[in-house]
Design brief:
- The chain has helices at about 1-15, 15-80, 85-120, 130-140, 140-145, 160-180, 235-245, and strands spanning about 125, 150, 155-160, 185-195, 195-205, 250-255, 260-270.
- By secondary structure, the chain is an alpha+beta fold.
- The strands form 2 sheets. A 5-stranded mixed sheet has the order 2-4-5-7-6. A two-stranded antiparallel ribbon has the order 1-3.
- It is globular and about 80 Å long.
- It starts with a helix and ends in a 5-residue tail after the last strand.
- Adenosine-5'-diphosphate (ADP) binds near residues 171, 207, 209, 224 and 235.
């Protein structure tokens, strides 16, 4: 079709129709080639992502076994030899046990991270208010201990994997309580419609985050504090990001250090059938 049009045009201008036809066909070939290149690159990316997921899953699964053995040996060492060890020897064993517990948590986190896509459930109509109720019930102890005050607006029904949506809220609310100064944490959960997306917000009055860390905190194992300051393993937000990406949305943070943070995430609203 395109070649025909070019021949007509060049004839009218007195130029060689053949040259025009060659130019057009080169153009089409180029476009075809770049479409094929893009296709190949996309397939390659999907393949390497799948391989990376499988790799993380296999490694984290297989590392659990030797780690269990090592932790068991350390416990036996402490139980059977503590009379023969001086205080420094005992302290070293305690530190080794602590490290193995942390490593176990990190391996479990990596396994959970690698399973977000492969072990997710199908999306279904999900009442996000009911999910929040369930999450708050499971966080009840942390809420009570910290005298946290939580305001929840009316939240919409959305298409989501309910278990993963609960995981996202659980991580965000639990962080909002944890990364708080001495005052009681005050948290506000809301949602608004933004074009074809529901945009959720979890706002706190906690310690806040410096802007240069806004993206970094979503990378697995990245933390801004020591275990003594705030305990954790640096996995929660990376899992939230994977879950939201699986749903076709995005997640980000806005914050003023010292005043608090708001974590936002979006979930697409399906087109009416
Ligand atoms: P963890 O909570 O186990 O450290 P996360 O992946 O949930 O891991 O969070 C990564 C880091 O992001 C935290 O260590 C903390 O520095 C920062 N962060 C997360 N949520 C908040 C929050 N509500 N207020 C301040 N900092 C936060």
């Amino acid at each position: 079709m395109e070649i025909k049009a070019q021949v007509y045009y060049s004839g009218a201008q007195g130029a060689s129709p053949i040259i025009m036809a060659v130019v057009t066909s080169l153009d089409i070939t180029d476009r075809k080639r770049s479409a094929q290149d893009l296709d190949r690159l996309t397939q390659e990316l999907v393949r390497s992502n799948t391989e990376l997921d499988q790799f993380a899953s296999i490694v984290s699964h297989d590392l659990q076994e030797p780690l269990r053995g090592m932790s068991g040996m350390l416990r036996i060492l402490k139980r059977d030899y503590q009379d023969r060890l001086d205080p420094q020897g005992l302290e070293i064993i305690d530190l080794a046990v602590d490290s193995s517990v942390r490593m176990k948590q990190q391996i479990e986190g990596l396994l959970a991270y690698s399973r977000v896509k492969s072990h997710g459930h199908p999306f279904e109509l999900t009442d996000s208010s009911a999910i929040i109720e369930m999450v708050l019930a499971s966080l009840n102890l942390q809420v009570q201990e910290n005298q946290a005050v939580i305001h929840v607006d009316h939240l919409p029904q959305i298409m989501a994997d309910p278990i993963q949506l609960a995981q996202v809220f659980q991580n965000l609310i639990s962080n909002a309580i944890k990364f708080c100064k001495s005052i009681p944490p005050e948290i506000h959960i809301s949602a608004s419609q933004d074009n074809h997306f529901w945009q959720f917000a979890v706002k706190d009055n906690g310690i806040g985050i410096e802007p240069q860390h806004f993206e970094r905190i979503f990378i697995i194992f990245r933390r801004l504090h020591t275990q003594d300051e705030y305990p954790g393993n640096g996995i929660g937000l990376s899992i939230c990001q994977r879950i939201i990406t699986r749903h076709g949305g995005r997640i980000w943070v806005e914050s003023t250090p010292g005043l608090g943070s708001t974590f936002f995430f979006t979930i697409p609203i399906p087109e009416p059938q």
